[in-house]
Amino acid sequence: MKEAEKYLRDYETYVLDLARQSYMRRNHGLLRLRIENFQERSYQQVRMEIALPEGISAFLADDYSDEEFEAPYRPKPLGEKHSLITGSFAGRGIITARHVPDVHMFIENETLLCDVVSLRAEETLDLPLIHLMTSKESDELSLVLPWSITAVNALGRTRGHLQLRIDGVIEELPEGTSE
Questions:
Q1: What's the pLDDT tens digit per position in 72-99?
Q2: Is beta strand 111-119 parallel, antiparallel or unpaired with respect to 43-51?
Q3: What whole-number distance in Å separates Cα of residue 101 and Cα of residue 72?
Q4: What is the rounded distance in angstroms from the CA atom of residue 54 to the CA atom of residue 51?
Q5: Which of 26-35, 46-55, 132-141 shows the highest mean pLDDT?
Q6: Beta-strand runs (E) in 64-157
Q7: What letter would DSSP give residue 61?
Q8: Do residues 101 and 137 lie in contact, with contact meaning Cβ atoms separated by under 8 Å?
Q9: Using alpha carbons only, what angle is made at residue 66 by residues 32 and 13, rounded to the nearest 5 degrees?
């Protein structure tokens, strides 16, 4: 029974991954963000946070751009007492020390987080592409996304709001799917 429940959870994740990949490939809900330093001073270890409103979810385009998702294996009809470890190690999810990205974006607790190693004086950086999805039913949405930014060599936190008007660009999650 546990194997069947795990299979169903894994299959739901698989279907959601395919839906997100299709959504991303059609450029639906695309959000392009840029961080600009207008000052003549460089900043180190910059952290930008953007809060997502209730009912809006986001995912990174890079997570779905070249990925081919494999459907989970169906459990055996009578279950398995013993399982053998087979296959090969692909090394997914490992970052080597020689390649440290300057920009790392991730989503945690309904917040977009972006860490920038260094933001030079008067520099503009394009951030990784994000796609927004909603569970709300509406032809037209206006979103207000509060943001804040800090750096280890700066005092305090700068805050603001990002106003988005969305008209038919983001789609609803299919019924019965969850995040």
A1: 888 776 555 544 333 333 333 333 334 4
A2: antiparallel
A3: 31
A4: 9
A5: 46-55
A6: 103-108, 111-119, 124-126, 130-134, 140-150
A7: G
A8: no
A9: 90
